[in-house]
Amino acid sequence: MKIVGIGVDIIENSRINRLISNQKFINRVFSKSEIIKSKRIKKKSLYFAKRFSAKEAFVKSLGSGLRNGINFNDISIVNDKLGKPSFSVNKKINMLIKKKHKTNSFNFFLSISDEKKYSIAFVIFQKK
Predict the structure, then answer these.
(1) Is-above-0.90 flag for pTM?
(2) In this structure, are residues 102 and 83 in contact, taking their beta carbons and an 8 Å threshold?
(3) Distance CA 83, CA 10 (A)
(4) Bridge partners, 118 (sequence order)
């Protein structure tokens, strides 16, 4: 196994709090499953801030940024039964990884956290 990339991002929660008042922003950045889950969340700005930061860290770990037709809503952050976050990526991202990194077998490791003012995410991209 080989680490191919890492990404980190930090965002001010108040910035996302302002942006999520715009439904177009939410639809452009977040996946349908994330939007549906947000309806059950009380602290929406923290929920969305952590996911925004995770998506930024994700594209940094790929080394591509938001190029090649990749959009933030192509990336979805999901949680297991215990709350551990991970990524769900669509076919477009899988094809980008296959083309750019010459692999079909990979893992992403995600850690996200928040405090009163900031949310942060750290991602490791690993070839199997």
Answers:
(1) yes
(2) no
(3) 20
(4) 12
